[in-house]
Amino acid sequence: MTDTSRLDDKIIPPPELMSAWEAIPEIVKLGDPVLRTRAESVTRILTSDTQKLIEHMKVIMRKANGLGLAAPQVGVSKRVIVYEIDDQIHVLVNPIISGGRGEQLEPMEGCLSIPNLHGVVKRFQEIKIKGQDHRGRPVAKKVIDLEARVIQHEVDHLDGILFIDRAESASLVWAMPGRNGDDEEVDEPAFRE
Fold it and tell me: Which of 152, 145, 98, 153 is nearest to 125 (CA)?
């Protein structure tokens, strides 16, 4: 695996994107040590602290128009993820990926902690996931496609792994605001020497 501290130092957003990095200050950005730390298991789910964390994560994820969010991304080193698929928010506490098969390369991945950076990441097409829901009830299911990709990305966060660690480095590009308000991929290199 890549020396992550050196990798983190090389990824610097273009000046035009600094406002995107500052837009949602509740989300921890690349360079914060919590993103590179293995998160602790949650021992008590039905506490007010854990429930407040889960609700806070849901609000921040929606505010940022994200597909998923892991607790370390809001500065809390706990094994909690939230994600949204088909307009439904899911919560997984202490998630464990117990198996995977197949391969998917699309869509390109991005991360709320590294705004506007996108890259190709090889992920399993199908995974088995287990953990607990927001009420502490056991969850065990198979998921595919985008849901599998999002869960793998968020579980990586819980282990201190960012998508840039798994991406094909040549595929990492910045999405710059286009004239019509849409993001457009540019040839701006992600790495700075």
Answer: 145
